[in-house]
Amino acid sequence: MSQTAHALILAPRGRDAAVAAGLLTTSGIEGRSVPDLRALVAGLSDDTSMALVTQEELATADLTDFDRWLRAQPAWSDLPIVILTHAGGGPERNPHAARLLELLGNVTFLERPFHPTTFASIVKAAVGARKRQYEARARLAELAESRERLDTALLAGNLGTWELDLLTMQLETSATTRSAFGRAGDAVFGYSELLASIHPEDREPVLAALEHTGQSGADYRVECRIVWPDGSQHWAEMHGRRLLDAEGRPSKIVGVTSDITVRKTSEQQLVAVNQSLEQRVAARTAALEEAHARAIREIEQREKTEEQLVQSQKVEAIGQLTGGVAHDFNNLLMAILGNLEVLRRHVGNDERAVRLIDSALEGARRGSSLTQRLLAFARRQELEVKRHDLVALISDLTPLMRQSVGAGIEVVVNPSPSPAPAEVDVNQIELALLNLVVNARDAMPEGGTITIEVGEAALGSEPPDLAPGSYVEIVVTDTGKGMDAQTLRRAVEPFFSTKGVGKGTGLGLSMIHGLVLQLGGALQLTSAPGEGTCARILLPCAADDNMAEAATMRDTAPTAAPAAQSRILVVDDDPLIAMSTVAMVEDLGHTAIEASSGARALEIIGSDEPIDLLLTDFSMPRMSGVELIQAARALRPHLPVILATGYAELPDDARLDVARLGKPYDERQLADQINLALSRAA
Q: Which residues carry this modification: 4-aspartylphosphate (predicted)?
């Protein structure tokens, strides 16, 4: 196939071919003469801009092959054909010309003798039309590429697609969606099969949510139990959005489906563990109550101590399970977020693809926020601990707290006159305070007062496991409805909430509890029905040296200038995360060298291949990221290193002077660490 746009000329008699070729050259088009219709058809290709044929050559020729080629053109193509006729030979007075117009389609008749200006005008119009066809071809290719990238993102997230026509209720599903419902890729799976697959107890809520989306346009989101053809029970999550037709009427609902059976199973296991621990607590409490009847003040103290111990063990057990699940889910979110961010910048002007990707990104970021709260409860989150004055911190945060509670609730702040320095992660402490204030607001639907006090703590009723020393405290008190004893005991458990469905995650207090424990402090809650609630955060007081620094609220980390194009060795045993990280590295303009294990990475480092930076995961089989870094430094002592990990704390033997990148990270965070590491090594 020719790579140059050109016009084919079939005018073997007289000077028509020479004249036409000359005029085409004047118009900037290469004209190629052919001897007959068979040669014309053989020379046609997608790069043919137009065909110029004399009418007499078509009068007696067999047009079957020509017609077959024209009909076989791709959807974007409609080859312009200019037919040279004698005077009066156009379709208005010539039946044969009319038949040619009907048979050949995109035809323009030019009567001879013709003026060069007229010829140039017709050629310009034909070539312009062909150029627009080429542009349509390019757009179709871009759309196909965008679709392929979207399919890659859906595959990485194990997401299936579906589309429901609201007029006909016809359902179209992808193979991944059918797989989530236990169907083979080529199985018939329409709307009726979908409804039949949903567990009878969940069918009505699913239908109600679907009807609400169709009528109101609200986002569609449901979790439901499904029954596979083999009788086994699974869980599916469906998200969707309503689309309107050209007249603004509801037309379709399109969305994605994911199999969440593993997640739901983990949640059920968590509930089972919780119930088992509650039964143990109940049994132990009954035994202590029986003993209480036989023994005035020692048994009472033992009961209190043992109850605190059991509660601590209970929260610790739940925290270990929650932290493990959250860490693994972080890795999945890492792959989803990375691929979607790269894909988002390459979808062009496809508004529908942009909306779907943005929706998926928002969902993934919400999942990331949820895992951060779970890691906070489990005391495994990455903290950026620095010295801050809590008095100044709360002073700066007061306007936002007052905006958060709205009208009808008064926020009273009583700070101590002297600074209250503590070593804290300022973002996490601010989030904890906002959570406490919002909880207090929700406990006062008819209005009330929230009082916040900050200063040096007067110890005396602190928890028994609190280390000796000086502490500062933040106390948040409300005049709300309060909590009974049973609710107060469970207040810091993850997912426990007294709010209605959809009004809270049940992770606010558990996050605060995990945070203050990780900072070496404690959270104390006191409450009673009708008497409000008091939340007391105790934090170790910072050392007295450099007291002037205690008034500084935030330290801005230095940001390096964007690094030049570099060769970066990416090491991760998880193919999804490796693919996502490589895509982000290359999207930043660098060259990525991928290794799926520490052993393979060492082979590359030990070779002569140039490497500017090592980016490695921490948790890998056979050779951890720390072991890889130690071995790599023996080979290349000055090689800059970034260690990516979802763990807040590494083992004692893993203390290395390397940059840390917490998972999940986005492209901006990755770019900042790369720029900083390379600038320090320069």
A: 617
